[in-house]
Structure prediction request, 507 residues.
Amino acid sequence: MSSLITKVRLRQIESLLEKGKRLDGRGLMDTREIKIEQGLIEKAEGSARVLLGKTEVIVGVKIETGEPFPDTPKEGVMTVNAELVPLASPTFEPGPPDESSIELARVVDRGIRESHAVDTEKLCIEEGKKVFVVFVDVYVLNHDGNLIDASAIAAMAALMNTKMPNYEIKDGELKIKQGYTPLPMKSHPITVTIGKIGGKLLVDPWLEEEAVMDSRITFATNEDGNICAIQKGLSGFFTPQQILEASKIALDKAAELRKKLNW
Amino acid sequence: MNEKPDKLIDKKGLRGDGRKADELRPVKLQVGVLPNADGSAYIEHGKNKILAGAFGPREMHPKHLAQADRMVLRCRYHMAPFSVPERKSPAPSRREVELSKVIKESLEPALFLELYPRTGVDVFVEVLQADGGTRCASITAAALAIADAGVPMRDLVVACAAGKVDDTVVVDLYDAEDKLGAADVPVAYMPNLNAVTLLQMDGILSPDEFEKAVNMAMEGCKKIYALQKEALKTKYMVVKEAEE
Prediction:
Protein backbone atom coordinates (compact mmCIF):
# COMPACT_ATOMS: atom_id res chain seq x y z
CA MET A 1 0.00 0.00 0.00
CA SER A 2 2.68 2.41 0.99
CA SER A 3 4.52 1.78 -2.26
CA LEU A 4 1.42 2.72 -4.24
CA ILE A 5 1.17 6.04 -2.43
CA THR A 6 4.87 6.48 -3.00
CA LYS A 7 4.51 6.03 -6.74
CA VAL A 8 1.73 8.61 -6.99
CA ARG A 9 3.71 11.01 -4.85
CA LEU A 10 6.84 10.42 -6.90
CA ARG A 11 5.00 11.43 -10.06
CA GLN A 12 3.66 14.53 -8.38
CA ILE A 13 7.06 15.49 -6.96
CA GLU A 14 8.82 14.84 -10.27
CA SER A 15 6.40 16.94 -12.29
CA LEU A 16 6.82 19.79 -9.79
CA LEU A 17 10.61 19.47 -9.93
CA GLU A 18 10.45 19.86 -13.71
CA LYS A 19 9.01 23.31 -13.05
CA GLY A 20 11.65 24.00 -10.42
CA LYS A 21 9.17 23.68 -7.57
CA ARG A 22 8.79 21.50 -4.53
CA LEU A 23 5.80 20.18 -2.57
CA ASP A 24 6.41 22.53 0.34
CA GLY A 25 6.83 25.57 -1.89
CA ARG A 26 10.61 25.79 -1.74
CA GLY A 27 12.93 26.17 -4.70
CA LEU A 28 15.37 23.33 -5.42
CA MET A 29 18.25 25.11 -3.73
CA ASP A 30 16.35 26.45 -0.68
CA THR A 31 16.99 25.02 2.76
CA ARG A 32 14.30 25.11 5.40
CA GLU A 33 14.51 27.65 8.18
CA ILE A 34 16.98 26.70 10.92
CA LYS A 35 16.43 27.58 14.55
CA ILE A 36 19.09 26.85 17.14
CA GLU A 37 18.69 26.99 20.89
CA GLN A 38 21.71 26.27 23.07
CA GLY A 39 22.17 25.26 26.69
CA LEU A 40 18.64 24.01 27.34
CA ILE A 41 19.72 20.94 29.31
CA GLU A 42 21.39 22.30 32.44
CA LYS A 43 22.61 18.90 33.64
CA ALA A 44 24.61 18.31 30.47
CA GLU A 45 27.99 19.98 29.92
CA GLY A 46 26.65 21.20 26.59
CA SER A 47 23.38 20.97 24.69
CA ALA A 48 21.51 22.32 21.71
CA ARG A 49 18.15 21.94 20.07
CA VAL A 50 17.84 22.43 16.34
CA LEU A 51 14.70 22.86 14.33
CA LEU A 52 15.22 22.37 10.61
CA GLY A 53 11.72 23.05 9.34
CA LYS A 54 9.75 20.54 11.39
CA THR A 55 12.68 18.18 11.90
CA GLU A 56 13.73 18.49 15.51
CA VAL A 57 16.93 17.21 17.05
CA ILE A 58 18.34 17.67 20.51
CA VAL A 59 21.99 16.97 21.28
CA GLY A 60 23.48 16.63 24.73
CA VAL A 61 27.20 16.56 25.46
CA LYS A 62 28.50 14.79 28.55
CA ILE A 63 32.12 14.80 29.63
CA GLU A 64 33.71 12.07 31.67
CA THR A 65 37.25 10.87 32.25
CA GLY A 66 38.51 7.66 30.75
CA GLU A 67 41.42 5.99 29.03
CA PRO A 68 42.74 7.16 25.65
CA PHE A 69 42.90 4.83 22.67
CA PRO A 70 46.28 3.05 22.53
CA ASP A 71 47.12 4.56 19.11
CA THR A 72 46.41 8.13 20.27
CA PRO A 73 47.75 8.26 23.87
CA LYS A 74 47.96 12.06 23.91
CA GLU A 75 44.44 12.74 22.72
CA GLY A 76 41.05 12.88 24.36
CA VAL A 77 38.21 10.82 23.00
CA MET A 78 35.07 11.99 21.26
CA THR A 79 32.21 9.65 20.42
CA VAL A 80 28.91 10.31 18.71
CA ASN A 81 25.83 8.19 19.27
CA ALA A 82 22.41 8.69 17.72
CA GLU A 83 19.03 7.56 18.97
CA LEU A 84 16.05 7.51 16.68
CA VAL A 85 13.59 7.63 19.56
CA PRO A 86 10.24 5.99 18.77
CA LEU A 87 8.23 9.09 19.60
CA ALA A 88 9.82 10.90 16.63
CA SER A 89 8.25 8.83 13.86
CA PRO A 90 5.90 5.85 13.42
CA THR A 91 8.75 4.13 11.56
CA PHE A 92 11.19 4.26 14.49
CA GLU A 93 11.15 1.29 16.79
CA PRO A 94 12.59 0.88 20.26
CA GLY A 95 15.57 -1.39 20.66
CA PRO A 96 19.28 -1.36 20.00
CA PRO A 97 20.48 1.07 17.31
CA ASP A 98 19.76 -0.14 13.79
CA GLU A 99 21.82 0.55 10.70
CA SER A 100 20.12 3.92 10.03
CA SER A 101 20.95 5.33 13.44
CA ILE A 102 24.48 3.92 13.29
CA GLU A 103 25.00 5.50 9.88
CA LEU A 104 23.59 8.81 11.15
CA ALA A 105 25.91 8.78 14.15
CA ARG A 106 28.94 7.84 12.09
CA VAL A 107 28.31 10.50 9.43
CA VAL A 108 27.93 13.19 12.11
CA ASP A 109 31.03 11.82 13.85
CA ARG A 110 33.07 11.83 10.63
CA GLY A 111 32.27 15.48 9.91
CA ILE A 112 33.37 16.57 13.37
CA ARG A 113 36.35 14.24 13.63
CA GLU A 114 37.88 14.74 10.20
CA SER A 115 37.66 18.53 10.39
CA HIS A 116 39.38 18.34 13.81
CA ALA A 117 36.54 20.42 15.24
CA VAL A 118 37.25 19.35 18.82
CA ASP A 119 40.86 19.96 19.85
CA THR A 120 41.32 16.50 21.36
CA GLU A 121 44.98 17.13 22.21
CA LYS A 122 43.86 19.62 24.82
CA LEU A 123 41.66 16.97 26.43
CA CYS A 124 44.62 14.92 27.64
CA ILE A 125 45.06 14.77 31.41
CA GLU A 126 47.84 12.21 31.73
CA GLU A 127 49.43 10.78 28.60
CA GLY A 128 48.37 7.23 27.91
CA LYS A 129 46.39 6.98 31.14
CA LYS A 130 43.71 9.55 31.59
CA VAL A 131 41.88 11.81 29.18
CA PHE A 132 38.53 13.52 28.92
CA VAL A 133 35.92 11.59 26.98
CA VAL A 134 33.33 13.70 25.19
CA PHE A 135 30.04 11.91 24.59
CA VAL A 136 27.88 13.52 21.94
CA ASP A 137 24.38 12.05 22.06
CA VAL A 138 22.04 12.89 19.21
CA TYR A 139 18.37 12.54 20.05
CA VAL A 140 15.93 12.84 17.17
CA LEU A 141 12.64 14.23 18.50
CA ASN A 142 10.72 14.72 15.28
CA HIS A 143 11.53 13.20 11.92
CA ASP A 144 10.58 15.39 8.99
CA GLY A 145 13.52 14.52 6.78
CA ASN A 146 17.23 15.36 6.53
CA LEU A 147 18.20 14.07 9.95
CA ILE A 148 21.87 14.19 8.97
CA ASP A 149 22.09 17.96 8.51
CA ALA A 150 19.88 18.72 11.52
CA SER A 151 21.93 16.37 13.72
CA ALA A 152 25.29 17.63 12.47
CA ILE A 153 24.35 21.26 13.09
CA ALA A 154 22.89 20.38 16.50
CA ALA A 155 26.01 18.41 17.45
CA MET A 156 28.26 21.34 16.52
CA ALA A 157 26.00 23.82 18.33
CA ALA A 158 26.06 21.62 21.43
CA LEU A 159 29.87 21.27 21.32
CA MET A 160 30.23 25.04 20.97
CA ASN A 161 28.03 25.37 24.04
CA THR A 162 30.02 22.80 26.04
CA LYS A 163 31.87 23.76 29.20
CA MET A 164 34.75 21.68 30.49
CA PRO A 165 35.22 21.28 34.22
CA ASN A 166 38.37 22.98 35.50
CA TYR A 167 40.80 20.56 37.06
CA GLU A 168 44.22 20.24 38.61
CA ILE A 169 46.45 17.26 39.27
CA LYS A 170 47.66 16.82 42.84
CA ASP A 171 49.89 13.83 43.65
CA GLY A 172 48.73 12.09 40.51
CA GLU A 173 45.09 12.50 41.49
CA LEU A 174 42.64 14.43 39.38
CA LYS A 175 40.82 17.12 41.31
CA ILE A 176 37.88 18.95 39.85
CA LYS A 177 38.00 22.62 40.69
CA GLN A 178 35.35 25.30 40.70
CA GLY A 179 34.32 26.86 37.43
CA TYR A 180 34.34 25.90 33.79
CA THR A 181 36.15 26.69 30.57
CA PRO A 182 34.73 26.31 27.06
CA LEU A 183 35.53 23.08 25.21
CA PRO A 184 38.59 23.73 22.99
CA MET A 185 37.51 23.88 19.34
CA LYS A 186 39.62 24.19 16.20
CA SER A 187 37.10 24.19 13.39
CA HIS A 188 33.39 24.49 12.66
CA PRO A 189 32.28 22.08 9.94
CA ILE A 190 28.91 22.52 8.26
CA THR A 191 27.11 19.57 6.76
CA VAL A 192 24.90 19.84 3.68
CA THR A 193 22.88 16.97 2.23
CA ILE A 194 21.72 16.90 -1.37
CA GLY A 195 19.04 14.55 -2.62
CA LYS A 196 18.51 13.24 -6.12
CA ILE A 197 15.02 12.65 -7.46
CA GLY A 198 14.58 11.69 -11.11
CA GLY A 199 17.94 13.16 -12.10
CA LYS A 200 17.34 16.48 -10.32
CA LEU A 201 19.44 17.63 -7.38
CA LEU A 202 17.84 19.43 -4.44
CA VAL A 203 19.09 20.53 -1.05
CA ASP A 204 17.67 19.70 2.37
CA PRO A 205 15.16 16.99 1.36
CA TRP A 206 12.21 16.69 3.71
CA LEU A 207 10.23 13.58 4.64
CA GLU A 208 7.98 13.33 1.57
CA GLU A 209 10.96 13.79 -0.71
CA GLU A 210 13.06 11.29 1.20
CA ALA A 211 10.35 8.66 0.66
CA VAL A 212 10.81 8.87 -3.12
CA MET A 213 14.47 9.91 -3.31
CA ASP A 214 16.89 7.83 -5.45
CA SER A 215 19.99 8.73 -3.51
CA ARG A 216 21.52 11.37 -1.32
CA ILE A 217 24.99 12.71 -0.79
CA THR A 218 26.26 14.54 2.26
CA PHE A 219 29.26 16.86 2.35
CA ALA A 220 30.84 18.26 5.50
CA THR A 221 32.94 21.33 4.74
CA ASN A 222 35.15 23.52 6.90
CA GLU A 223 35.71 27.28 7.00
CA ASP A 224 38.57 27.06 4.46
CA GLY A 225 36.16 25.79 1.83
CA ASN A 226 37.66 22.31 1.96
CA ILE A 227 35.70 19.08 2.08
CA CYS A 228 36.27 16.93 5.17
CA ALA A 229 33.69 14.16 4.96
CA ILE A 230 31.33 12.66 2.41
CA GLN A 231 28.68 10.00 2.54
CA LYS A 232 26.56 8.80 -0.34
CA GLY A 233 23.42 6.99 0.72
CA LEU A 234 20.34 5.13 -0.54
CA SER A 235 19.96 2.75 -3.44
CA GLY A 236 20.46 5.07 -6.38
CA PHE A 237 23.56 6.40 -8.10
CA PHE A 238 25.17 9.69 -9.14
CA THR A 239 27.00 10.40 -12.36
CA PRO A 240 30.48 11.88 -11.86
CA GLN A 241 29.14 15.21 -13.17
CA GLN A 242 26.32 15.18 -10.63
CA ILE A 243 28.82 14.56 -7.84
CA LEU A 244 30.89 17.59 -8.81
CA GLU A 245 27.74 19.64 -9.14
CA ALA A 246 26.58 18.46 -5.71
CA SER A 247 29.95 19.31 -4.16
CA LYS A 248 29.70 22.85 -5.51
CA ILE A 249 26.14 23.22 -4.22
CA ALA A 250 27.22 21.92 -0.82
CA LEU A 251 30.12 24.38 -0.60
CA ASP A 252 27.88 27.29 -1.61
CA LYS A 253 25.12 26.34 0.81
CA ALA A 254 27.59 25.80 3.64
CA ALA A 255 29.14 29.22 3.04
CA GLU A 256 25.68 30.78 3.07
CA LEU A 257 24.79 29.04 6.33
CA ARG A 258 28.17 29.87 7.87
CA LYS A 259 27.50 33.54 7.29
CA LYS A 260 24.03 33.30 8.75
CA LEU A 261 25.10 31.36 11.83
CA ASN A 262 28.34 33.32 12.19
CA TRP A 263 30.36 30.10 12.72
CA MET B 1 54.22 2.15 18.94
CA ASN B 2 52.71 4.37 16.35
CA GLU B 3 55.66 6.17 14.88
CA LYS B 4 54.72 8.18 11.89
CA PRO B 5 57.36 8.21 9.20
CA ASP B 6 58.28 11.71 7.98
CA LYS B 7 57.33 10.89 4.45
CA LEU B 8 55.05 8.24 3.04
CA ILE B 9 56.27 9.06 -0.47
CA ASP B 10 60.01 9.14 -1.21
CA LYS B 11 61.96 11.59 -3.37
CA LYS B 12 61.46 9.53 -6.50
CA GLY B 13 57.69 9.74 -5.98
CA LEU B 14 57.43 6.11 -4.91
CA ARG B 15 55.16 5.03 -2.11
CA GLY B 16 55.92 2.86 0.92
CA ASP B 17 55.23 -0.32 -1.01
CA GLY B 18 57.12 0.83 -4.10
CA ARG B 19 54.13 1.89 -6.17
CA LYS B 20 53.72 5.08 -8.20
CA ALA B 21 50.91 7.49 -7.34
CA ASP B 22 48.57 6.13 -10.01
CA GLU B 23 49.50 2.47 -9.66
CA LEU B 24 47.13 -0.14 -8.24
CA ARG B 25 48.13 -3.01 -6.00
CA PRO B 26 48.04 -6.39 -7.75
CA VAL B 27 44.47 -7.71 -7.92
CA LYS B 28 43.61 -11.40 -8.25
CA LEU B 29 40.02 -12.50 -8.73
CA GLN B 30 38.46 -15.92 -8.75
CA VAL B 31 34.80 -16.76 -9.31
CA GLY B 32 32.87 -19.79 -8.05
CA VAL B 33 35.02 -20.69 -5.07
CA LEU B 34 32.29 -21.76 -2.60
CA PRO B 35 30.44 -24.99 -3.48
CA ASN B 36 27.43 -24.27 -1.24
CA ALA B 37 26.77 -20.69 -2.31
CA ASP B 38 24.69 -19.88 -5.40
CA GLY B 39 27.47 -17.55 -6.43
CA SER B 40 30.82 -16.69 -4.94
CA ALA B 41 34.07 -14.86 -5.52
CA TYR B 42 37.45 -14.48 -3.90
CA ILE B 43 39.59 -11.38 -4.17
CA GLU B 44 43.18 -10.71 -3.31
CA HIS B 45 43.70 -6.98 -3.54
CA GLY B 46 47.23 -6.35 -2.37
CA LYS B 47 47.29 -8.04 1.02
CA ASN B 48 43.51 -7.95 1.36
CA LYS B 49 42.01 -11.41 1.15
CA ILE B 50 38.23 -11.43 0.97
CA LEU B 51 35.54 -14.04 0.26
CA ALA B 52 32.05 -13.17 -0.91
CA GLY B 53 29.11 -15.58 -1.19
CA ALA B 54 25.70 -14.82 -2.68
CA PHE B 55 22.45 -16.73 -2.10
CA GLY B 56 19.22 -16.25 -4.02
CA PRO B 57 16.96 -14.97 -5.35
CA ARG B 58 15.18 -17.03 -2.69
CA GLU B 59 12.31 -16.74 -0.25
CA MET B 60 12.91 -14.14 2.43
CA HIS B 61 13.55 -15.22 5.97
CA PRO B 62 11.98 -13.92 8.12
CA LYS B 63 9.01 -13.67 5.77
CA HIS B 64 7.72 -10.31 6.98
CA LEU B 65 10.82 -8.66 5.53
CA ALA B 66 9.75 -9.57 1.99
CA GLN B 67 8.58 -6.64 -0.15
CA ALA B 68 5.50 -7.07 -2.33
CA ASP B 69 6.92 -4.99 -5.18
CA ARG B 70 10.63 -5.78 -5.22
CA MET B 71 13.52 -7.97 -4.26
CA VAL B 72 15.32 -7.26 -1.02
CA LEU B 73 19.10 -7.27 -1.08
CA ARG B 74 20.84 -7.92 2.21
CA CYS B 75 24.55 -7.62 2.79
CA ARG B 76 26.75 -8.53 5.68
CA TYR B 77 30.31 -7.26 5.75
CA HIS B 78 32.26 -9.02 8.45
CA MET B 79 35.89 -9.10 9.44
CA ALA B 80 37.47 -12.27 10.76
CA PRO B 81 38.96 -11.90 14.25
CA PHE B 82 42.40 -12.75 12.84
CA SER B 83 42.21 -10.37 9.87
CA VAL B 84 43.91 -7.44 11.63
CA PRO B 85 46.98 -7.09 13.90
CA GLU B 86 44.93 -6.75 17.11
CA ARG B 87 42.25 -9.43 17.37
CA LYS B 88 38.90 -8.04 16.36
CA SER B 89 35.88 -9.19 18.32
CA PRO B 90 33.66 -11.27 16.03
CA ALA B 91 30.58 -9.32 17.13
CA PRO B 92 29.59 -6.80 14.44
CA SER B 93 31.10 -3.39 15.20
CA ARG B 94 29.41 -0.11 14.33
CA ARG B 95 31.87 0.25 11.47
CA GLU B 96 30.84 -3.13 10.07
CA VAL B 97 27.15 -2.26 10.35
CA GLU B 98 27.72 0.97 8.43
CA LEU B 99 29.87 -0.73 5.80
CA SER B 100 27.26 -3.48 5.32
CA LYS B 101 24.74 -0.74 4.62
CA VAL B 102 26.86 1.23 2.16
CA ILE B 103 27.99 -1.94 0.37
CA LYS B 104 24.34 -2.98 -0.02
CA GLU B 105 23.48 0.46 -1.36
CA SER B 106 26.41 0.34 -3.77
CA LEU B 107 25.17 -2.95 -5.27
CA GLU B 108 21.43 -2.22 -5.43
CA PRO B 109 21.62 0.13 -8.45
CA ALA B 110 23.04 -2.78 -10.47
CA LEU B 111 20.09 -5.10 -9.78
CA PHE B 112 16.62 -5.24 -11.33
CA LEU B 113 15.00 -5.27 -7.89
CA GLU B 114 11.51 -4.61 -9.25
CA LEU B 115 11.58 -7.77 -11.40
CA TYR B 116 11.85 -10.16 -8.44
CA PRO B 117 9.11 -9.22 -5.97
CA ARG B 118 8.93 -11.04 -2.62
CA THR B 119 12.39 -12.54 -3.01
CA GLY B 120 15.63 -11.91 -1.24
CA VAL B 121 19.29 -12.05 -2.19
CA ASP B 122 21.83 -12.36 0.59
CA VAL B 123 25.46 -11.45 0.14
CA PHE B 124 27.94 -12.38 2.82
CA VAL B 125 31.39 -10.86 2.76
CA GLU B 126 34.12 -12.21 4.99
CA VAL B 127 37.36 -10.30 5.26
CA LEU B 128 40.03 -12.89 5.98
CA GLN B 129 42.90 -10.43 5.93
CA ALA B 130 42.65 -6.64 5.86
CA ASP B 131 45.22 -4.16 4.59
CA GLY B 132 43.29 -1.00 3.76
CA GLY B 133 40.56 -0.62 1.18
CA THR B 134 38.53 -3.63 2.30
CA ARG B 135 35.18 -2.01 1.55
CA CYS B 136 36.21 -1.49 -2.07
CA ALA B 137 37.61 -4.98 -2.51
CA SER B 138 34.45 -6.35 -0.84
CA ILE B 139 32.23 -4.57 -3.36
CA THR B 140 34.31 -5.85 -6.28
CA ALA B 141 34.01 -9.41 -4.97
CA ALA B 142 30.34 -9.14 -3.94
CA ALA B 143 29.32 -7.94 -7.41
CA LEU B 144 31.08 -10.95 -8.93
CA ALA B 145 29.37 -13.30 -6.47
CA ILE B 146 25.95 -11.92 -7.41
CA ALA B 147 26.75 -12.24 -11.11
CA ASP B 148 27.99 -15.78 -10.51
CA ALA B 149 24.67 -16.61 -8.79
CA GLY B 150 22.99 -15.81 -12.10
CA VAL B 151 21.15 -12.72 -10.91
CA PRO B 152 20.67 -10.37 -13.89
CA MET B 153 22.61 -7.14 -13.49
CA ARG B 154 22.72 -3.79 -15.29
CA ASP B 155 26.50 -3.80 -14.93
CA LEU B 156 29.14 -5.11 -12.60
CA VAL B 157 29.95 -2.84 -9.69
CA VAL B 158 33.62 -2.24 -9.11
CA ALA B 159 35.25 -0.18 -6.39
CA CYS B 160 38.56 1.48 -5.77
CA ALA B 161 39.74 4.22 -3.43
CA ALA B 162 41.89 7.28 -3.97
CA GLY B 163 43.22 9.65 -1.38
CA LYS B 164 45.86 12.10 -0.36
CA VAL B 165 49.19 11.01 1.06
CA ASP B 166 51.70 13.66 2.03
CA ASP B 167 50.68 16.25 -0.57
CA THR B 168 49.99 13.89 -3.44
CA VAL B 169 46.72 12.46 -4.66
CA VAL B 170 47.23 8.70 -4.99
CA VAL B 171 45.09 5.72 -5.93
CA ASP B 172 44.32 2.56 -3.95
CA LEU B 173 45.61 3.29 -0.44
CA TYR B 174 47.01 0.48 1.66
CA ASP B 175 46.70 0.30 5.41
CA ALA B 176 49.53 2.65 6.44
CA GLU B 177 48.48 5.29 3.90
CA ASP B 178 44.88 4.97 5.00
CA LYS B 179 45.78 5.50 8.65
CA LEU B 180 48.49 8.15 8.26
CA GLY B 181 47.44 9.82 5.03
CA ALA B 182 45.43 13.03 4.77
CA ALA B 183 42.29 11.69 3.12
CA ASP B 184 40.63 8.58 1.77
CA VAL B 185 37.91 8.55 -0.90
CA PRO B 186 36.40 5.12 -1.67
CA VAL B 187 34.37 5.07 -4.88
CA ALA B 188 32.17 2.32 -6.34
CA TYR B 189 31.36 2.65 -9.99
CA MET B 190 29.45 0.98 -12.81
CA PRO B 191 31.68 1.77 -15.80
CA ASN B 192 29.16 0.96 -18.55
CA LEU B 193 26.51 3.20 -17.01
CA ASN B 194 28.94 5.89 -15.81
CA ALA B 195 27.23 5.69 -12.41
CA VAL B 196 28.89 6.19 -9.03
CA THR B 197 27.11 3.97 -6.51
CA LEU B 198 29.29 4.54 -3.46
CA LEU B 199 31.19 7.62 -2.44
CA GLN B 200 32.55 8.32 0.97
CA MET B 201 35.35 10.46 2.22
CA ASP B 202 37.24 11.24 5.35
CA GLY B 203 40.16 13.58 5.76
CA ILE B 204 40.52 17.04 4.31
CA LEU B 205 40.63 17.77 0.57
CA SER B 206 40.25 20.97 -1.40
CA PRO B 207 37.52 20.86 -4.07
CA ASP B 208 40.20 20.46 -6.79
CA GLU B 209 41.93 17.63 -4.97
CA PHE B 210 38.55 15.99 -4.44
CA GLU B 211 37.78 16.12 -8.15
CA LYS B 212 41.19 14.66 -8.95
CA ALA B 213 40.75 11.90 -6.36
CA VAL B 214 37.33 10.89 -7.71
CA ASN B 215 38.70 10.75 -11.26
CA MET B 216 41.71 8.75 -10.16
CA ALA B 217 39.52 6.30 -8.26
CA MET B 218 37.28 5.87 -11.30
CA GLU B 219 40.33 5.16 -13.47
CA GLY B 220 41.35 2.51 -10.94
CA CYS B 221 37.83 1.08 -11.06
CA LYS B 222 38.04 0.73 -14.84
CA LYS B 223 41.28 -1.28 -14.57
CA ILE B 224 39.78 -3.65 -12.00
CA TYR B 225 36.61 -3.89 -14.09
CA ALA B 226 38.58 -5.54 -16.89
CA LEU B 227 39.94 -8.11 -14.43
CA GLN B 228 36.44 -8.67 -13.04
CA LYS B 229 35.02 -9.52 -16.46
CA GLU B 230 38.01 -11.74 -17.16
CA ALA B 231 37.48 -13.66 -13.90
CA LEU B 232 33.80 -14.23 -14.69
CA LYS B 233 34.59 -15.52 -18.17
CA THR B 234 37.38 -17.74 -16.88
CA LYS B 235 35.04 -19.72 -14.65
CA TYR B 236 32.67 -20.59 -17.46
CA MET B 237 35.44 -21.39 -19.92
CA VAL B 238 36.86 -23.91 -17.48
CA VAL B 239 33.45 -25.61 -17.18
CA LYS B 240 33.14 -25.89 -20.95
CA GLU B 241 36.52 -27.50 -21.33
CA ALA B 242 35.72 -30.02 -18.63
CA GLU B 243 32.56 -31.07 -20.47
CA GLU B 244 34.41 -31.65 -23.68
In short: The longest strand of chain A covers residues 130-142.
